[in-house]
Protein 1
Amino acid sequence: MAEPKPKRTLVRAVLVSQLAFAALVGVIAIGCLWWVSNWVVRDNLDDWAIRWVGEMESLGSGFYVDTNDERFLELERYLSRFPEIQYVRYYDVDGEVIYLESGVETPSMYPQLAAAELETLSAAVADPEGYVMDLTLEPLVRISQAVERESIISANLFSARSLDELESESTVVGFVELGLDYSAYDRDLLSGVSAGSAFIILAFLLLLLAGRIALRRAVQPLADMQEHLERIAHGDLEVRIPTSSHREISAIGEALETALEKIRERDRHLTKLANFDPLTGLASRYHFMELLSERLSHCARQGDSGALIFLDMDQFKHVNDTYGHQAGDEILAQVAERLRQVVRRDDLLGRFGGDEFVLFVGDIDELGADAVAEKLLRDLGEFPLVYDGVSLNANCSLGVAMSEGASEGEPGAGGEDTSIYSPEELISHADLACRLAKSQGRNRACRYRPDAKHMEAIKSDVQWQQKLKAALKQGGLELHYQPIMQLSNNTVMHYEVLVRLREGDELYFPNQFLPAAIRFGLMLEVDRWVIDHAFMQLNWLRRRRPDVRFSINITGSAFADGSLANYVKSKLREHDLPAAAVIFEITEQVAVGSFSEALPQILELKSVGCEFAVDDFGTGYSSLSYLKRLPVHYIKIDGAFIRRLTVNRTDQTIVRAIADIARIMGKRTIAEFVGDAETLKLIREIGIDYGQGFHIGKPISKIEDLDDRQRVIPLRRTGSST
């Protein structure tokens, strides 16, 4: 690749332009000077030539009367006064040379007047000018004129009162030829013009030098600004632009200062949004992981131990269900403030997500970590949290994981990072311990102990994380499509998009890899991958089946950063899809747990035409108040109520109640896990709108098969049922 040409400086560009313009003007001026001077001199010399030839005629008239020597002397004296005159020839009327006077040694080198030229001169007597000029012998200029003699022929000589009344007659008696050399004038003119040109060029060079100095001083503030602009280009926003006495440069500096301040404000705002949770003010999940990585490296170098405490609120969803999301936000903010009061100044504290908090305490052993965990439990339990005059318990479960560093004298101490666990592994340890605390009755703390079972679970989590990252980068994820049948006419115009992870010949299902994706913060990337690729496949399919629609599952991570609506709208435009072709499925837990983040984005997407479905309804928090507030169009009844629907009256009652409630609310119902004809017949009798399950159709791995698939599915018989 060719290297870019170096850019010219502003001073050089202006000076080159100035020099080019000055040179052009100088050339024109010198040319005009030469032309005008030459024209004036030539014109003046021509006038002198006419005058000289006239005087030569007068001085030479004696040659045609007598041979007075005084005439010769007078002619010689006259010629000596004018060195321009090279020679003078006099001819008689027949063209014979009767006299030649010359200032050069060999005037005969110049040809005599020919007969035709003599006739021309004779005819020119009547012309007022009466001369002929020949320029063909450059540098010699030859001018010729007839010599005439005038005689009075009038008879009334004595009676005439003036010469005008006398009649006269002119007779050509000969010719005079004058040779002139103007080369001396040309040399003088050339010398003068050359000297003038040299003076002009010198003046231009002096002006150029003065202009360069003046221009450099004028634009020096701009040159001084170059270094600061380069620093800005490399990301240094703490640059201070120098001031200038020039109004324009000062205006540029002020504008740059204003722009820098705006950028600094924006960066501070974006950094705060990225690094700190807006609700609690604690470090965000990603920022906490960055800080934790630095702290673990420091502990490893110093040979210190630290403890990570994973805190998860107990029954926090009950607060949201009972008092609303605003109450939940207020409680989380109070918990964060209480944690700030408990921890030390140097401890790391962050909100990991939802109602989960993380704390890293450095320079502490196992007993000290257990004591900190017990203090957290006691402080949060003894001081109730208050919302709208109501006291609420803030019980929580804690998981503690120790981070071991290289001790003194061991390899790695004194500068090399030898921490046993990575931040992700330490989080997984504490999370596992927290789940153990919840399984043992909640409101307690458990410490992670690296036995074989725990190590295997952590190893599995890390392996799934690595597999998922590789799949996202290398195309290891793929989409399958399960038909959803409309029960009123047995048609399938609606498919649920299911994500799978393929590694070689192995195909993994979401319950195997998505938990690791959630724990390691990869879920948002997975959600966006599914949306983008599902939209691309739907665009291909709708060109063949224009009325087909896709249901796409999204998790709470998709709502976390508030950009889901904008992302979906941009992908709809990119893949040329109508919003009405897309249904997003969210679980009860996501809808309730991320209500404040999810609701504005759901409303925005609904306004452009997208629809929403509540998935796995009936197994989560079953909050009818949330169902009434959520702008969803479909309720997907969890398969736990459908699998044994034909033999379990309780399940039948629950499904009928859900169908009745949905009908009253104007929402459509979808029954999952329809595995046989009897179940299909029963949900149709209950009034369910759509069915989904292996009896209706298994997930299809190739989008091309959806184009060939029958839109009307024939009912299959099992026993006597239809």
Protein 2
Amino acid sequence: MDYALQAVFDLAERCARHGLRWVVLSPGSRSAPLTLAFARHPAIGTLVVPDERSAAFIALGLAQQTGQPVALVCTSGSAGLNYAPAVAEAYFQQVPLLVFTADRPPEWVDQADGQTIRQQELFGRHVKASYHLPVDLSHPDAQWHLGRNLSEAYNLACAYPSGPVHLNAPFREPFYPAADQPLTYSSHLKIIEETSAQPALADIVWEQLVKSYTQANKVLLVVGQNRRDPRLLAALESLGLPVLADSIANLHGLGPLAVHHDFTLAQATRRQALGPADLLISLGQSVLSKSLKTYLRQHPPREHWHVQPAGAVADTFQSLTRVVRAQPVAFLQALAQCGPARPAWATELMQAGRQMAARLPGFFAALAAANEPLAELEVVHWLLTHLPARPLNLHVANSMPVRYVNALGLGTRHAQVEVFANRGTSGIDGSVSTAVGHALADPHRLNVLLAGDLAFMYDRNGLWHNYLPANLRIVVLNNHGGGIFRLIDGPKNLPELDEYFVTRQQARAEATARDLGLAYWAATHRDELMAVSPAFWAAPQAALLEVETQHQVNEAAWARLKALATSGG
């Protein structure tokens, strides 16, 4: 007896022929045809994650680490809605995902049938496209339509800028095969492959750009969130122009990088002294530093080029004058061959950053010598100075962890470290799951997550499955509330702060670690932190270190660090 949904079963074979290697599934009945198709395919690895929100962020991490699309499969109803945070993050971080949502047949939508919602265009404009697959597959044209849609979706997910694509799959009963029914993948299947071309600037356009570039004395480069790329580092070194970039741009160790700019540019007098650039060249994705954005908006450059091969370009600094459709590395390499060396500028900013870097060891030594209570800043400093000397990923959750890392920065000793953060939407959801996805994608690469208590508690289900990776280390900064609201202007002076902004909570991570199988250590003092450090890094399994601090101590240390940037000593 033939399987009525053979064309659906063949979707897995089509995906495999395109190169798909990972699928993250969440249990459900309506999704059975898709689940069976992927679970039985010998070339595709599967993970079963019960919580769809965590499943989607794990898929995001897998896709980031591998650089290849990862598929998601869930049942009908609200299950797909739980994918939404990770789908939005993938869209804005340009991460390829194939999002399969099983659905009831169209005649049962809005008929009070179980697990039935309006799933067409479920993710709105947060996917590159949304496909509604045919429900009746008996006609050969419908089978051709299904296969064509799959190829289109896969190619679109990969095409620059890559991103998530939604495939909604309605199924009528019966959709389970008989238990003894043999299922095989069809051998006559074809896929549609897509060959991409590299954008090239016309000679006359390149000549115009070179003329503007050579006539500009004050040229500044800004790099947003980016993967660590040795070719980009080499191109920026050869240009020798001042570069402003956050830690999530992964340019640590770059010679012309203005370190600690988040603090040095916080001073209005320094922004005023620096003044506007003649030409700003930007590349990469989002920028974290509010000080950097303030500087560029208050002192707009005469020209602002953003270099990006394709896709929409945001005018983040309100100064964009030209979008250059080129590969950033190739463009910068070519630019380095043009024009004489420029007179040095931004020297005061560069020097201020180097001075602050030189003062940081003394700053932390003074905190330790005073025997004051342990502050979160010290924990982050300990983490950055004790990262193992091996290739690893450092994941930083949003709110204060990513700001702490950006403030302290990484240097040449971190050449094997790549920094990741969910800065597409900048939410606290999904940081644990994303790190887990990275760790599962490459079991030989260490993955270290720095998270606050709220971000960790919010995403604990990212550890609730049967694939806990041994190469995962989690450091939780537990100040028992949303500490960022005590440190930023606005909410910190409001009478409603503690009740409505900080989210006071008394939970600790120990029970989660115990329930889910992580090795666990805790510290509240410097000596405890140093004592547990060797065992934490050497643990043979996934491990969690929880450091409890007091918000008053964290506030005081942050204020002292900000003062250090303006003190001159």
Protein 3
Amino acid sequence: MAGSFGIFRQYEKAALAGLAIMAMLAFFVLPPILQMGPGSGGSDPVAVSWKGGGLRESGLQRAVIMRRAANQFLVESLAATGRTPSRMPLPDDEKDVVNTLLLAKEAEAAGIVVSNETINKFLQGWTNDLVRPGQFEEIIARIGGRVGLGQQDVFEALRSVLLADRMRELLLRGVDFSGTPPGWLWDYYRRLEQSATVELIPVVVEKFRDEVPEPSEAALRGFFDRYKEDLPVARSSEPGFRQPHRARYSFLVAKADTFVEQEKPKVTDEQIKEFYEDRKVALYKVKPADAAAGLEEKDAGSKEPAKEPAGSSPAAAEKASDATPEVKPEAKPAPKDGAATGGLRVRPAAFRQPASAAADAPKEAAAGSEPAGPKAAAAEGTEGTPPAKAEPATDEFEPLDKVKDDIRARLAAIASERRVSNIFDAVKADVAKYGESLALWQVAGDGAGPAPVAPDVGKIAEQQGLVGGASELVNRSEAFATPGIGGSFELTMSREMGMRQQRWVDMLFDRSSPMLRPVATRDIEGNRYLSWKTEDQQQFVPSFPSAREDVLRAWRIVEARPLALKAAEAIVAEAKSSGKTLEELAAARGGIEVSKVGPFTWLDRGTAPFGSAPELSQPDGLAMPGEEFMRAVFGLEPGQVAVAFNEPKTVCYVIRVAGLEPAEAQLKELFLAAARDPRRLVAAAEEDATAVFSRWMESVERRHEVAWKREPRGSDAE
């Protein structure tokens, strides 16, 4: 035994150094590996199965990559026309990818075929026929080079999506407003167009909690067991005792305006002059006045408006991009050119070829004519439209004195970015050094002395002109609601998708995000943030003793609801029997609050674009009203009273309708006039249609016996 200790003492320093290295590896490397879950090592387990098939982890990962590649192909194809979508056209979470495969199987079983011609027609509509076959091939080559996919892979991904969409269309065709009963149309029109003003007496449920008898310990524990696996949801009437994923973080903020203003005085006249000389051609070139005058004279002297190239208007572009391809079952034998689903020949089937080969061939410039180029190709098929006239060259630029302030601001912004990056890099190094010291201290144990000191964000902020702080333990919703940093993002490079925007809140709560790894983000105003996670508390089910107070409070609220409803109904009964207004009843009873809210509609589109589904109104002065509340309000005539709970059933409202605008007779006249265009009503019914589709999709999953071996991951693989 003594000999063993002697050997340890002889190699004590080397042993401790090796142990410290192993600790650092365990601290920084092991958690992400463990968090990758099944299939991250050599094994390749089944991720999801269904009757007669399934996908292993590698197969599911490839299916998701194909979906993302198809997404990127659609985005870049649209960008080639000069337009970009506001979001990815197709969801790329694992559940949606699998559901698309199932719907494609359903479509094939129903005899639906999506031919290569159909895919080409879809792409033609998607791009408004402004992208040539060669451009499509370049886009796929660029995307495929990153993820190892070819034209056939992208086309097959699009084929599955179009098959699934056709199946959705067949289902939802019976849910839209073609042939819908007039009563339904009238109901949705009222929800959108009629406003109500109401008087309210809120009866708060929690005020009756002390009147609820004390439950037995067995009943309380049973209540806890019933809801212990459920996460709490703000608008839900059901409790939840499972604790959500929470995190604590430290952060630094560099205000863009502050740093730019500090850098402006440092910009010299020599720097301004040098920037002007280098960039004046790109930024400060003046258009020829005579050319502009000539264009104005031409427009003024034209007797009839110039014809707009086909598909060039925003409305036409929007219509083309939203076009749904017509997919018809094909019963005839597959043609030899590979147009059938079974045998795809990539080159002839990949993209719609022009009617004439001469359209793609280089055109020799005729005397007095301009050479054909991209603009001429884009304008092909526009009869009677003369080619755009090239603008005369010019050597005139905005004078330096006029653009001096603009240049100063640009140079100050560049210097500000550089300065903030240097500060953040230094802080990142300090945080990394602290992480290493903390790992060594944790391994050494009690004899290692005091714990290392974390970077002082307050001191750093004061020295560098930043704003710094540390959060409490917050869940995802609370973190996202944090002003500034909650909505910040980072531009990241993905092997599958190239450059993409990643939200800060997703990075903070990602399962693979390690502790003490600084993340730099920015917001749309240009402010920059550096944050690092200092504590990570995963979801967990608390013990009954530790959660007992929360369980008892939730029990009392649930049990107090009938008491609050009874009290509200008593006020309604008195109002009906006495004919008094709510104000008069409140004055007679004393201690009752009456408020007036409105006007508000049942459904509200807010700032959402035309054609999007409206949402339930959230009028000021109401605590989370739901469908029950809106149904009660708009089911009353002016002067009538009723009761209704809010959505989480924490408040029972006594409601008296003070007025409805417009009145029903006028509203019916407006409804008849608007009946010719039901598009707004279709958007209002989208939620109902979605609910129908969701129930049908659940039946499809049951019929195919879909079984996930783990929770399906979202688009950020959380």
